[in-house]
Every structure is written in structure tokens, then in C-alpha cells.
Specification:
heterodimer, A: about 325 residues, mainly alpha, about 0% strand, B: about 500 residues
Chain lengths: ~325, ~500
């Protein structure tokens, strides 16, 4: 009897947990939709309220008021703002993100053309940064005061103070102009090396600093001392026990940075002529290409929101405390 | 056949194949690569406002007439292209063209008068084409026969030929069938056929083996949009790019030191000027305006800020129709300017100089130099440096004291008619005689009479110091690999690379 009672309690608890999990996911999805709606209203409002008339910029400087007004009429800019917004959102619901005023091509096509390049550059920069910075930070943290620690600190200072523009141009000057071993611009594996290095440099410095600081903290924790006292070898203590805790804040930083990179990296993309989102959206902003800017903001925001949602869901599986909050 | 004979024949065939493959490897494709800052808009040649588009239009399309200009010319001339001859009616309202026979588009469609009618007819049917401002006065296009067409205007038209050099001819049947979808794979009669466009990366056009005229030297032309000047410089230094435009004077020493780059400079057809509203004090006082004019050190700006170009004497620049080389401009005279400021209605208020970012070279430095010149003579000023869209908005609203700008083109008709006569920039209170002359010049077809009118207008602007004060004629700088010939560069930044080639080709 007691066994069947216990079993039914366990089944009820398991069912309740599943219900809570589903409710949590649904809440998060609804929140994501709300966030995207807010982003669309905010971006629409900012673009239309900022000074600058796209019709005026699309025509020559000497265009008359009549010509400008005709073009505004044609591209729908004379309609009331709320009508323009609803027309835009109606299209978005059907998967149509509008047409670029400058390129006269579907915005979704323009964005999808560029998105892979931004993804590749972001991923390469982050991967390269982590591969360099994490081991460097770990060793620097473990061997405080050593030559490697000194080198790591110098690397951190340089990485966080050097201008990315200057660094990018320096890379081009050395590796393209002088040594002729890498192309100065373009799209491809060899062309990726310099922009990824320039973009990842500052991030490497940040990760090195964080890893080193975290490693120093963790190594001074009591549980680490206890494990060491049991006679376990130092490298095992670091790899098996300390590193996991060190990586938690690093993972958060990497996630946030990846999300930021996905908005495009204008400086790197411009200097290296890397065909990513950043360059596209910056020229769209200068040209007041409202539909394209709105579309990019919505796509990038959706991407970031989806990543955050995925991470939150994964966390909720890993840490039960989260799903109950 | 004996076995040994068969083997011999097989060996000979294999050897021939290997040799021809080797030869093919050595017969390198002839490619010219060109880089400039902006990407193409889209390939409708009538619906964009973009120098990159015009340059690529030249490659893929032909026009009724072509431009003929060299740095020594005063004004542009026209040479036959798809039109073999033309005549203009005495009243300037009718242009009759005799068309070239035997020309085919890339899809095999023949070029004829119907193509001209359909092409120019777009400006009558579609009112918001971005190059429509060139054809706003078009009335009709009449097909007389297969190879004769008359273009009629509502009023005498002085810029029809100027407009035709950037108005390519489209295939009538293909356009009627596909409409604007035609421009996804453009079809022209030009030296090059459309290859492909990877947005943000490259545009490729290929040699047309069936071209009606002199064949091209190169097999392929590649256009690369490289936004940053430093990137274009590096690309030219490494040889990744053959020609680059929109370079700057401070890059010349590095380019020259490489030993393999030729520097090409062309005086721009544009004028850097300051414009103001003469309805507002102190700009309504000629003494103040003259003081501003005498304060500006044009030679210093050209030498030390622009590091190239020419100090403006009038609005019409050297190389443009109507240029008057006898026009003399008073040099900077600080003492006289100071005196005039004291005598004028100027009350010491801070004048706002509005500057657009990126609209002309070294815009901020030029503005600072002018601000410094003004300070020397007692005129207080501040700079408002604005991004293009905001600048255009404020100018359109008349919300400025002075704005700096750079404008012009291969004929001053647009600026004189629209900026002065019709006052699109809200300058206000423009001299009525000046307005009348500015409008009149757009209707005078007789070249000599028009030249006299243009010079009169320039003279009034110079002596009235209103509504604009001209500053300088900038310079366009190109870097090209040594050994390249046949590339033509024009003062409005357009370029013709159809016959560009390396010496050895």
C-alpha cells in the first residue's frame, strides 16, 4: 500500500514538474514575442522620427519639392505612421520583410545574403579568442607572477586599449602589403584570418583577464584545498574540478558577445570589405533606407532572442531552481 | 589497322591534348579589376543615382551618343554611338536621330527606333524614375522609320545630348515581355555582357564576342565595392586591384614610392561653395558678403587643405561649357575685409556654417579653414557638421545661415535653373535679374548665345557675392597599375573602362 502511495506521489510530482516546465517555456516564448513587438515599434518609431527624408536622399540634390513628394507618395511615406507600421507588420506576419528603397530587392534576400558572412566572422573571432585566451588565462592564473602571467597581463592591457581600426590597418600593412601572404580584402578562408584576428583581439584580452581572475579565485576555494589535500595531482585538480567553475562566467560572456557580433561588425567589415550585415545596415542608415534597417533590426533581434530562449531552456533543464522561479 | 599504328595515333592525340591544356594555362584571362567605395544600387539604368551604376552601364549598354572629353577640353563634345548623326531644330524642341543599322542586343534582338521609343518612353510612363529629372520636359518620341527617331520636348531643351550620354538603350521586345525583371539579367548592346553580381562582393561582366564595333581588349571586367580608402590603397599596392578611384592626396607619396602605381588626377566638374539666405541679415548687406568673399584664402585651401584642385574664379569650372578664363577673382584681402565688416550691418553674432559629412573631400578641414579666415576679419562663426540626411533636411527647411556644398556636373544647367532660378534650397530673395537669366539659359540652344548668358550669370554671382560664394574646384584622384592604357576618367567621377588594357595585350 505504502509502495503504491509513494509511486502515485512520484508520478504526480513528475507530472507537475512537466507541467511547470511547459508553462515556463510557453511564458518565455510569449515574452520573446512581446520583446520582438517592442523592438519593431521602437525601431520603427526611431527611424521615422529621426531627421532625414529617404526620398530626398534617393533623388539628386537639385530635386524639386514636387519630385520628392511624388517619390514619397510612391514608396508610401506620406501615409500616417500607424498605417505604415501596420502595413509593415502585416507583411512581417507573412514572412515579407519589405523591399529595400536603395537596392529595390527583398530585404530578407539581402539579409540572408550577408548573414552567413557575419556568422562565419563572429564564430571565427570567438573560437580563435577562446582557443588562445582560455589556456593563457588558466596558465596565468595557476602560475601567478611567472613570465607567462606577465605576458598575459601585457596582452590584456594591449588588447583592451588598442583601437580596432588601427590594429586592422596594421595587420593589412604587415600581412598584405609587406609580406604579401594574406589578401587585403575579400571573402574566403584566407581573407577571414585578419578580420577574425582584429575582431577577436579585444575579446581575447577580456577572456584572458576573466579566466585568470576566476582561476585565482577558484584555486583559493576551500574545496580545492581539500581535494589537493587528498593528494590528487595539480593538473587533475585544475582540469577536473577548477576549470568547470571558471568557465561559467566565460560562457555567459561568450554568449553575450556572439549575440552582439551577430548585429554586424561595421569597422571590421568595412576595412576588410567583409560582406556582412554591419556594412549593409550602416549604409542603409545613412541612406535612410527605412525598410532595410527595420528588417535587419528585426532579424538580428529575433536571432538574439532565440539564442537567449534556447540558453534559458537549457539552463532550466540543468538547474531545476530556475524552472521554479 | 595494325596495333602499333593505333597506339601511335592514341599517343599523338594524348600529346596534343596535353599540349593544348598547357597552352590554355599559359593563355591567361585578361581581366581588369576596379574598386570604388559604393556598391551598385540595382541594374535598372534609369532608376538609380549612383556613379558605380553609370560606370557599369557603360560596359553593358550603349547609348545613342557617347561623351568625348579630355582634360584640355572646355566643355564636353558628343560622338556617334548607336546614333550615326543627329540634328537639332532651331527652336531646340526637336532632336532627330539617324540610328546605326545592324546592331543586335546580347539576346539577339535587333536595335531600332522602337527601342529608342520604348527606352525614353519610360520617362513619360514612370514619373518617379530617379534619372527622370533629366527628362522632365520630354513630350514624345516619334518613330519615323526603323532607323530614324524624333525626340520632342515641351520647351527648348539644352541638355538632351548631355542626358543621352547616361541614358542607355534598352531592348524593346525584351522589356515589353519582362518589364523590370529584365534588369535581373541586364541586356544591352554593349562591349560586355552581364556576368553576375554578388552583393557587397563583386560584379563581373564578360567580353561580348559579337560586338558591333571595335572589340574590347580585356576578357572580363571585375568591379569591387571597397568602402575604406585604406583598403583600396592596400589592394592597389598589392596588385589585387588594377584601378581604384576616390583616393586622397595624402596617399600619393606612398603610392609613388611603390614604383608600380600611376597617379591620375582630374579636376572635378563640381564646385565647392558656400550658400546663404540673402533675406537674413547680415547676408542682405553686400558689404558683409564681399567681406566674406575677401576673407576666404582660396589658394591656401587648395594648397594646404585639399592638396590639389584649383581656386574657383566663378561657379563654372575649368573644363565645363561656359568657363570664362578671363574671369578674375580678387585675392584674399584681410584688411579690406575687416574694414567692410565694420561698415556692414554685422552685429557680431555667431554665424552657423552647416557642413555635410562625406559630400566632398576634406569637408571638415575646408570648413575649419573658412572659419579661421572669418575669425581673422572679425566674423564669429561655428561649425555644425551633420550627417547627409539631416543636412539635406535642414537645408530643405531653410534652417541655416550658410551651408557648404559641392555640386556641378557636366553642365551647369541644373544648378543654375534649379538652385538659382527655382530656389530648391530656399536661399530666398535672389537677385531677380539673376533668376531670370538662370531660367533663360536653360532654353537657349544656340551655343554662343548660351555661353554669353552663362558668363553673365557667373559675373553677377561674382560681383554681387550672392547667393553663393565659390571656393574651389576639387580634384578627383585615381590610382592605376602602371602599363594600363585606354581608361578614361571624367570630372564627374564617371569613367569609361571599355577599352582599358595593359600595354602588352
Amino acid at each position: 500500500m505504502w509502495a503504491s502511495l509513494l509511486k502515485s506521489i512520484e508520478e504526480r510530482d513528475s507530472f507537475n514538474m512537466k507541467k511547470k516546465m511547459i508553462r515556463y517555456i510557453i511564458n518565455r516564448i510569449l515574452l520573446c514575442i512581446l520583446v520582438l513587438l517592442g523592438v519593431s515599434i521602437f525601431s520603427f518609431g526611431i527611424l521615422h522620427l529621426a531627421p532625414g527624408d529617404p526620398a530626398r536622399l534617393l533623388l539628386p540634390q537639385t530635386a524639386t519639392d514636387e519630385e520628392i513628394n511624388n517619390l514619397r507618395e510612391k514608396i508610401g511615406l506620406n501615409k500616417p505612421l500607424h498605417i505604415q507600421y501596420f502595413v509593415y507588420m502585416k507583411g512581417v506576419m507573412k514572412g515579407d520583410l519589405g523591399t529595400s528603397l536603395y537596392y529595390k530587392a527583398p530585404n530578407l534576400d539581402l539579409i540572408l545574403d550577408r548573414m552567413p558572412a557575419t556568422l562565419i566572422l563572429s564564430a571565427a573571432a570567438i573560437l580563435g579568442s577562446c582557443l588562445l585566451a582560455i589556456p593563457l588565462g588558466v596558465i596565468a592564473g595557476v602560475k601567478q607572477g611567472s613570465f607567462i602571467d606577465f605576458f598575459a597581463i601585457l596582452f590584456v592591457v594591449l588588447g583592451q586599449s588598442i583601437s580596432i581600426v588601427w590594429f586592422a590597418i596594421l595587420l593589412i600593412f604587415i600581412f598584405s602589403v609587406k609580406l604579401r601572404i594574406l589578401p587585403s580584402f575579400g571573402y574566403g578562408f584566407r581573407a577571414l584570418i585578419m578580420p577574425a584576428t582584429a575582431l577577436g583581439f579585444e575579446m581575447s584580452a577580456l577572456i584572458t583577464r576573466l579566466t585568470r581572475a576566476e582561476m585565482i579565485n577558484v584555486l583559493s576555494e576551500d574545496y580545492i584545498l581539500a581535494i589537493r589535500a587528498k593528494g590528487i595531482q595539480k593538473y587533475k585538480v585544475i582540469n577536473r574540478y577548477a576549470l568547470k567553475n571558471v568557465l561559467i562566467p566565460i560562457t555567459t560572456i561568450v554568449g553575450l558577445t556572439f549575440a552582439r557580433f551577430m548585429g554586424g561588425q561595421l569597422v571590421c567589415e568595412s576595412i576588410f570589405a567583409w560582406p556582412g550585415i554591419g556594412k549593409l545596415v550602416m549604409s542603409a542608415i545613412y541612406g535612410r533606407d527605412f525598410p532595410l534597417v527595420q528588417a535587419v533590426i528585426l532579424v538580428v533581434a529575433s536571432f538574439i532572442v532565440l539564442i537567449n530562449l534556447a540558453v534559458d531552456i537549457i539552463y532550466s533543464f540543468i538547474d531545476p531552481r530556475i524552472r521554479y522561479n | 589497322m595494325r596495333k602499333s599504328t593505333k597506339v601511335t595515333i592514341l599517343l599523338v592525340l594524348v600529346t596534343l591534348m596535353l599540349v593544348s591544356s598547357l597552352l590554355a594555362c599559359f593563355a591567361k584571362e585578361k581581366v581588369i579589376t576596379f574598386a570604388r567605395p559604393e556598391d551598385m544600387q540595382w541594374m535598372d539604368p534609369y532608376d538609380n543615382q549612383n556613379t558605380t551604376n553609370i560606370i557599369l552601364d557603360y560596359m553593358v549598354y550603349d547609348r545613342l551618343i557617347d561623351l568625348d572629353w579630355s582634360p584640355e577640353s572646355i566643355g564636353i563634345s558628343f560622338v556617334p554611338a548607336l546614333a550615326t548623326e543627329w540634328k537639332i531644330s532651331p527652336d531646340g524642341k526637336e532632336y532627330t536621330f539617324k540610328l546605326r543599322e545592324g546592331v543586335k542586343f546580347h539576346n539577339g534582338e535587333p536595335f531600332n527606333a522602337e527601342c529608342v521609343k520604348v527606352s525614353l518612353g519610360r520617362f513619360l510612363n514612370e514619373k518617379t524614375l530617379r534619372r527622370g529629372f533629366l527628362w522632365v520636359d520630354l513630350k514624345e518620341v516619334e518613330v519615323v522609320d526603323d532607323y530614324t527617331v524624333i525626340v520632342r520636348f515641351n520647351n527648348p531643351n539644352v541638355i538632351c545630348l548631355n542626358s543621352l550620354i547616361i541614358t542607355p538603350m534598352l531592348p524593346a521586345e525584351a522589356f515589353k515581355e519582362k518589364g523590370k525583371a529584365l534588369f535581373n539579367n541586364p541586356i544591352g548592346t554593349g562591349l560586355f555582357t552581364w556576368g553576375y553580381w554578388v552583393r557587397g562582393q563583386e560584379i563581373v561582366v564578360n567580353k561580348n564576342p559579337d560586338y558591333w564595333g571595335k572589340p574590347a581588349y580585356m576578357d572580363k571586367f571585375v568591379y569591387l565595392p571597397l568602402t575604406e580608402t585604406s583598403t583600396r590603397l592596400a589592394a592597389v599596392l598589392t596588385g589585387e586591384v588594377d584601378i581604384s578611384d576616390t583616393m586622397t592626396a595624402d596617399q600619393i607619396p606612398l603610392a609613388e614610392s611603390s614604383g608600380n602605381i600611376e597617379i591620375i588626377s582630374r579636376l572635378s566638374w563640381d564646385t565647392v561653395y558656400g550658400a546663404f539666405q540673402t533675406i537674413k541679415p547680415p547676408f542682405n548687406d553686400i558689404k558683409f558678403r564681399q567681406a566674406m568673399d575677401l576673407a576666404i584664402d582660396r589658394e591656401g585651401i587648395v594648397k594646404n587643405v585639399m592638396k590639389g584642385g584649383r581656386a574657383a574664379t566663378g561657379y563654372i569650372q575649368k573644363g565645363i561649357f561656359g568657363f570664362d578664363d578671363s574671369l578674375v577673382r580678387a585675392k584674399q584681402d584681410i584688411e579690406k575685409a575687416k574694414q567692410l565688416v565694420k561698415e556692414s550691418v554685422y552685429d557680431g553674432r555667431t554665424i552657423d556654417i552647416m557642413v555635410p559629412i562625406g559630400w566632398f573631400p576634406n569637408e571638415k578641414d575646408v570648413a575649419q579653414a573658412i572659419q579661421g579666415n572669418f575669425k581673422e576679419v572679425g566674423i564669429n562663426s561655428k561649425l555644425t557638421i551633420l550627417e547627409g540626411a539631416t543636412f539635406a533636411e535642414k537645408r530643405a527647411a531653410g534652417d541655416y545661415d550658410i551651408f557648404l556644398n559641392c555640386d556641378g556636373g557636366n553642365d551647369v544647367n541644373d544648378v543654375f535653373k534649379l538652385v538659382i532660378a527655382l530656389d530648391v534650397h530656399k536661399l530666398g530673395n535672389i537677385n531677380p535679374e539673376l533668376k531670370k537669366l538662370a531660367l533663360e539659359q536653360s532654353t537657349v540652344v544656340d551655343k554662343q548665345k548660351r555661353k554669353e548668358l552663362l558668363r553673365k550669370i557667373d559675373n553677377i554671382i561674382n560681383t554681387d557675392f550672392a547667393p553663393i560664394i565659390t571656393i574651389c574646384q576639387p580634384e578627383n584622384i585615381y590610382f592605376q597599375q602602371k602599363g594600363i592604357q585606354g581608361a578614361k576618367y571624367y570630372g564627374d567621377k564617371n569613367a569609361d573602362f571599355r577599352y582599358a588594357h595593359y600595354e602588352e595585350w
